Amino acid sequence: MKKIFVIVLAALAMASCQMDFYSSDSMTSAQLADNPSSAVYTTDGIYTLFKDRIAYKGQSGGESGNYYIRHYFQLAELRGNNVTVSGQSEDPFTLAYMYNDDPTKKNIYYTWWIAYKIINAANSNIDAITPGASALSDHLLGENYFFRAMLHFHMVTLFAMPYSQGRNNPGVPLRVGLDASTTTRASVGEVYDQIVADLIQAKTYLANGENERVTGNSKVYVTLDAARALLSRVYLYMGENDKCIAECDELLDHAPTSVTTGYDYADYPTHTYDHPETIWCIRLDASDDWAGEHAEASIASMYIKDGNGWGEHYWREDLVDNFRRYPADKRFKAYFRMTTDGLSWEDAVTAAGGKVCINFPIKTNDKSNACSDAFIANLTPNADNSVDFAYSGKNYTATPTVENGYTVYYVNDAGFPGIKTNGKARVFVRPNTDRSHGLRNNMGGDYMVYYCTKFSYQDGLPMMTSPVFLRWGEVVLNRAEAYAKTGQDGKALDDVNTIRHRAGLTGADDMTTGNIAARGYASALEVVLEERVRELCYEGHSAFDSFRNNLPLDRQYVGCHDWEVMQPNDPRIALLIPLDEINSSGIQQNPR
Fold first, then answer.
1. Can you count the helices (H) and strands (E) in the chain?
2. How many Cβ atoms from other residues are within 10 Å of residue 53's Cβ?
3. b/e map of 213-226 (b: 16 or more CB within 10 Å)?
4. Pair 560, 365: CB distance under 8 Å
5. How many other β-carbons are positioned within 10 Å of the β-carbon of residue 392?
6. Which of 347, 284, 293 is nearest to 17 (CA)?
7. Is residue 244 within 8 Å of residue 478, measured between CB atoms?
8. What DSSP element (H or E) covers 398?
9. CA angle at residue 336 from 332 to 337, to 5 degrees?
10. In Å, what is the CA distance from 243 to each residue of 32, 252, 474?
11. Which positions ≥6 away from 27 have C-beta within 8 Å?
12. Where are the alpha helices (DSSP H) in 78-161?
C-alpha cells in the first residue's frame, strides 16, 4: 500500500524562538518511550511547526512565506467575503481568494504537508506517553490529542465539502496511530467523529494535568479550556447544538470578567499571548523570523502598509457599512484605518471638512468578472443628503435610503454604469480623501484603501502579533448560534448583547426578540451571524459561517475575484488536494 507522502520523517533544525525545543518529529516513538522526559520537548516542538519555515521536498532552506499559521489564516479568511484583494500577486493567496486554487502552489502543498507532519508527530507522542504516569504526562497526552484533532479539523474544513452538505462526502485521510499508512480519504463524517473522540480524550487528560504547563497569564500552551472551545466549534459545525451549548456552558462558568466587561481592542493584538480574551494562540516574539528579515511574509503584511507591509488586503465596503451602522462600536475604531496616512474614520471626516467622495464597482475589463472602483472626489452633499456627481460625461444623483437603521445610497438610473444587484446600483459615500492617499491602482482599476490592524503592533512592530486560534468572544457566539438553532431566541440575543456591550453598544443598541424584526432581521440566527461578522472578521470564520448554515456567500463587491453569489454546495468550496499528494499516493482529487 502506498504511503502518504507527508509522513516521511526528517530531522528538523533546532527551533529558535522563545522556546528552544527538539524538533517535534526528530525522535521515534521507541526513543520517546526510552526517554519519557523528552516528550516535553517533542510536544513543545510541535508548537514551533506552526510558525517555523520548514524545508519542503529537499529544499536547502525554508521558502519565504511558508509558515503554517500564515497559510492557514489566509486560506480560511480570503475565501470568505470580508476582504477585498486589489490585484493578483506573485503570492498564490490570490488564487485561493478567487476560488481558482492551484494544487501545485506552496500555500496548498505546504499547508497539507505540515499539517500531516504535525499529526504524525502527535501520533508518535501519543504512542509513547504512558497515561496516568504523572500529571505532567497526562497534560502532554491531552496536548497531543488536541493537536491531532485540530489539524484534522483544519484539513477537513479546507479540503472537503462542509459537514452540512453530507457526512458521506469524501473527507481527508485519517492518520490515527503509527501504523495508519492508508491514503484512502475517510468520509467527512468519519473525520469529524475522530476529531470529537480526540477532543474528548484531550479534555480528560488535560483535566488530569490541569495547570501543569501554564504559568501566570500565558496563553501559549494548549489547556482544558482550549479543548472545550475547539470542541464547541466542532459541535456547532456538526449541528450538535445541545452539545455545543454544554461545552460553552462549562467554559463560560469560569470566564474572565473581561468577557462581559470588555477590554481595549486596539491593545489586544499587541499582547494576545497573555491577554484574558485569548484562550490559545501561537506565540511570536521579536526574535522570530516574522519580526526580522521575513516580516513582509507575516499575516499583517497584506493588511497594512507600514514597516515591511505590502498593504494589498482591504476592508470590503459593505463591512465598513456594517460597522458604521453603530458609530460607538469600539472594534471598528480599533482596527480600521481609512488611508495610507493611517486616519481613522472620524479623522477622515474632520479632514474632509464636509466634502465627500463617491466610489462604486465597475468591471475592470470585458474578459474578467473582477471589479474595481470608480472614484469621484470633492463633492458637496445636498440639503437632503443626496449627492450629485458626474461620471464619464453624464450627471447622476446618489440617493440616500435607510435600510435596517442605516443610510445607504443608490443611483436610480438605467444608464448608470455601476454594477446592479436586483436592479439597483449601489454606491458608497465616504469622507473625502485625496486620490494619492485614498486609492491604490492595480489591475487597471482603482481600489479604496481601508487597512486592518488586527494582526499588528506587538512589541511595537507593525507586522507582528501572536495569532489567536481560540478566544472567548467566539465561545459566546458559538453558544448564541446554538441557542438560536434550538429555538432559544432570548438566550441567543442575550449572548449577542454580551458581545455588543463590551464593544460599547448598549441601551438602544440592544437586540431583543421584540425589536429585531423592525430592524430588518428575519430571525435571531440572522442577528447572531451578523454579530459574528463584526466580532470575528479577518480571523478565518466568514466562509465557514455561511456554508455550515447552508447559506450562500455573497461576493458581489470590489476585488480581483468573480462578482458572484456562491452556493453552499459549490464544489469549489473544497480546496484542490496538492498535486504532490495525488502523484505520490493516487488519492482522489476534488472535482471542479
1. 19, 17
2. 21
3. bbeeeebbbbbbbb
4. no
5. 9
6. 284
7. yes
8. strand 394-403
9. 150
10. 36, 14, 16
11. 35, 38, 42, 124
12. 93-97, 106-128, 135-159
pLDDT in tens, 501-556: 999 999 999 999 999 999 999 999 999 999 999 999 999 999 999 999 999 999 99
Answer whether 313's CB lies under 8 Å from 82's CB.
no
> Distance between terminal CA atoms of the chain?
27
- The backbone torsions φ and ψ at residue 149, rounded to the nearest 5 degrees and listed phi first, read -65, -50
Residues across the chain: 592
- Residue-wise pLDDT for 2-59, tens only, equals 333 332 223 222 232 333 334 444 455 555 555 656 888 899 999 999 998 888 876 6
What is the dihedral sign for C-alpha 218, 222, 224, 226? Answer: positive
Per the CB < 8 A criterion, the answer to whether 85 and 560 are in contact is: yes
Cell of 537: 472578521
Per-residue pLDDT tens digits for 451-499: 999 999 999 999 999 999 999 999 999 999 999 999 999 999 999 999 9
Q: Which of 527, 452, 444 is nearest to 483 (CA)?
A: 527
Q: Which three cell numbers stand for residue 344?
A: 481613522
Do 328 and 509 form a contact (C-beta atoms < 8 A)?
Answer: yes
Q: Which pTM value belongs to this model?
A: 0.93
C-alpha–C-alpha distance, residues 22 and 18, integer Å: 13
Q: What is the pLDDT of residues 347-363, one digit of tens each?
A: 889 989 999 999 999 98
Instruction: Show Cβ contacts of residue 281 under 8 Å, excluding neighbours closer than 6 positions.
Output: 219, 220, 272, 273, 466, 467, 468, 469
CA 452, CA 470: separation in Å to the nearest integer?
20
